[in-house]
What we know:
Blueprint lengths: L5 H14 L43 H15 L28 E2 H4 L19 E2 L31 E7 L1 H9 L5 H5 L11 E9 L11 E9 L5 E19 L8 E7 L29 H4 L17 H13 L8 E9 L12 E2 L18 H5 L37
Amino acid sequence: MTYNNTKVRGRWALYFALLLSPVALTDTATAVDQSPPGDSHTQRKTPLICTLPVQAPPPDGSVIAFSDFSWLQFIALNWPASAERGEPDCGADFGSSGDTVWQSYKTTGQLFLPNAANPGPWDAGKTMEFVLTYRAKAPAGLPVEESIRQAVGGWLTDQQGNPTYYSISVNEASYDYVTNNGFYNASTVNAADAIDFPEGALEVKAAWRVLTSNDDHSRYHTMRAQVAEYDSKGAATGRTHEAKVGLVGLHIVYRAPGFPQWSWATFEQVDNTEGADGVMASYHNNMCTGDYCEPNVSPLSSGAPFTTPNQITRVTAITDEVMAVNQRWQASVRGTPFQYYRLISPQWPTDPNDPGNPQGTPFPGTVANTALESYIQPTSSCMDCHSTARVPGGAVKSNYSFIFLFAQQPEPAQPDPAQGESP
């Protein structure tokens, strides 16, 4: 795909103009609506588009504009996937069963192989190959100073006593940048002069929880996955088992044209911290009693056992502007599991191209996902955190991406048995 195509950018600019206008729009596509007969929709439906938007709003754009852009990404990424990896089946209805576009992307486990093996071309290997662990964003073996904290370490156990699991996936532009430069090899990426992802690169970071008979599965986007097993202290046993998991958090990180600091959006399932309509919150119990009821405290600080539910509340409220955008888009996907998801906030650089201001002045300043930054919500900022990202050896910054922390070292060369033999 060519990301500097002015016609494509113009198309999305026109779409945004129409989107924010009061004129009623004709749906480009529709969601599969399973609402009860006669159920009234008080919100006008916004058209659904199966392809990812290319051009973000301008840096001085409004929260509403960036929130709409975030929802356009969310819709396109969760569109049913075609047989071609990373591409939508635009003939399918949004919300219909099957794999989604972003789930057909390559995971970090498929990109960074043992012994720094070449992972091959984009089309190689299986799709929907998820082996989930509880570590949010970095391998368990990394020292704290080289990891970003669950986010700052520790685990997140839901009210059913199960850990939250995480996955990271990259699109073709990201994948090709890594593989074409040999950056799946830790030695190679550590020796790089600079890391600079191309425009169009995209990463998706997802949080999942195991669904039980106590959960309403229809309120979740779900998949079957291999999940890692842990002992009572949170140590990996080396075993996995298959489970049905539901999506509870999603970060979308996009190298938008003209945004060297990338653009950011984070979504959550609506039941994470607040129960509704008789549905129990996934990560909060108003009736909690005992030693571990103080909210938003990492179990590494409280000493809570691995299977004890962690109590999470939202620290920074969702703004009224974002809530209004959520209501409009939720109405458009009504009758699908995605009506039970909401944007928490977009984040973007308001001054992206000033060399004297390399971070670009992120706005809003604080953004936190309760399933991904559970214990650092008051100070959490996607852009501030990722601006510190470096290659594993720390020699250079890694252009707002932590994926290189998964890069593997090549297998040491074996000595030639023939050398050293007497003639």
